[in-house]
Amino acid sequence: MDFILQQVITGLSIGSILLLVALGLAIIYGSMGVINMAHGEFVMLGAYGAWALNSVFGLDLLSSLVFIFIGVGAFGWATERGVIRFLYARPLDTLLATWGIGVVLQQVIRLTAGGELRYVGMPEIFSGTVSILGVGVSSYRVFVFLFVAALFAATWALMFRTSFGTRLRAVVQDRNTAMCFGVNADKVYSLTFAYGAGLAGLAGALVAPLKSVSPEMGAAYVVDAFFVVVLGGVQSLFGTVASAALLGQMSGSLAYVSNDTIAKALVLLAIIVLIRFRPQGLFVTKVRS
Amino acid sequence: MTMKRRSFLKGIAATGAFAATGFPHIWNKNMSLARAANGEIKVGVLFSLTGTTGIIEESLNKATLLAIEEINAAGGINGMKIVPIVEDPASDPATFAEKARKLVVGDKCVSVFGSYTSASRKAVLPVFERRDNLYWYPTLYEGRECSKNVIYTGAVPNQQQDEFIPWLVQKFGKKFYLIGSNYIYPKEENNYCKKLLEKLGGEVVNEEYVPLGHSEFSSVINKIQSTQPNVIFSTVVGDSVVALHRQYRAAGLDPEKMPMASLTTSENEVAAMGGEAAAGHFTSAPYFMVHQSPENEKFVAAYKRRWGDDKVTHFVSEPSYFQVYLFKQAVEKLAGSEIDPPTIREAVKGQELIAPQGRIRIEPENLHTYLWPKIAMAKSNGQFEVLESFPEWIAPNPYAAYPGQMCTADGLKES
Question: Would you call A260 and B55 a contact, using CB atoms and an 8 Å cutoff?
């Protein structure tokens, strides 16, 4: 029975990493409707931020998280102010522009930080394992899981328990009416985009010690993030959690019974089938129209 | 189109002239065939400087150029300078083929040094075979290729595994877990590994392949934990090596009980994953940067002086370096006679020289190289410690996993 428990925990861990990477996209795509193709590069910036803060200032990963969140968030804010706000009425152009931003970011990192794989160390306190019901689990994975849970709770609270969240939801429902009530839609949008970008940066920093850091790393993450968000249902935060958990368990257990190559193909197939019969995703936010 | 017509007309005119004056037809041959002339020997250098494998191939480009510069500084070859023509094929097999054609047909290079991936080598092969030119390939690869137009200076499976697998079995046990990236190289290596294990009475508890660039190994690690192998034989490449080692360590597995044995983990990958994740795992290769020999000290010092103190040399950059010296030795033998790809090929057969890894030799039949495989353990400082150096060089056999097939100077022979 041990291996089933172990596999469930593995699935949870994979799911938590998926959610971590997708959360920022869920905010940006879900609330603002902006298809941000540079999301993967925001993740990559976070990972390089962790590397740079460590190699230049000697900061360890945990203490650099705050700076990475603020730094990548600020970059996201500048992107929204400088490019995206001019394109809100033209979704296809946003897609192209953000993709271009992604390519530029990749090459800028390649030219400044170099193209070789970079090293981000795992925090010493989490380098061991902990025992959960008799199964040994990497304590760093447990930490990531808890961190993502906290991050999700904070995001949910921000959206549904603060006046900022109320204003954002108002703008999402009807921008013009919200503005008539005195909501500064521009400000709400740019802060939301910054928050989403900051989350992506955190994701990059947190996956770096488990995976590898290279200028091209974003490509894989942006694909995963879109799967999670689209499958979960755009605009539904809980849908994002559910689909991350589902995809995590699926890819974990399929990889266990067959192998990762087949698991990947089957997961993609399952997503296509689900989207075919439920184009709106697993969860739909009901809105009176 | 106009160029083609013009050269066609020229060809007609030339043939006419030779027929009339009775010149030996050898002149005609020289028009199309690459050869050294005017005190210059033109060679192509074809490593990607951009794209996905740009970083690693750049180090091969640097090692090649270093050797060329050294040879020229010491007076060239029989007084002739080597003129390198550097092209960047951008990690794309189709561009490799295009640039190879340019170097061979346009620039008339007598040899080209290049390629890291098998895909790029396969892409340029037809160019070199059609023009009967020579390609010098420095990377370890999966074998099962037999071309008289390629000089292979990297290891083939039998050279990395013949000593390694028995050593692992003896030291750790007979249960092996084979994991590789999903493409031809890991499959051929595992194929040979299984043959060796069969002979040694070993057992393969699982064999699996992950997609290229895969970075989530937790299910693989669960399977490793539930099958409890003695050795994890890894031919995972690129970013995935880094992820696999880190997640192995994070899961609390112990390299002393269940080490990873790799053919692809070099100083480069160790630097990216961090010494703590690499420590205690094994690699088999003919060259490690720490290898103690006067030639290697010279090579490492020269490389750092030329390209920067923080640069590392590794088991693909070393052959990139010594194969230029092999080329030099072959061309030296041709003093006074024609220097073109077929004569260079004949001259390089059986050539020996002392490379940084030890004395190496070109096998006259299959044009692969006798090498000195070593077994090394990675240490937490990011370098390797060589545990075993074998007393003899190992002959290359690109068809070791396919008894009955043999690569000879006349091509592949089936028996």
Answer: no
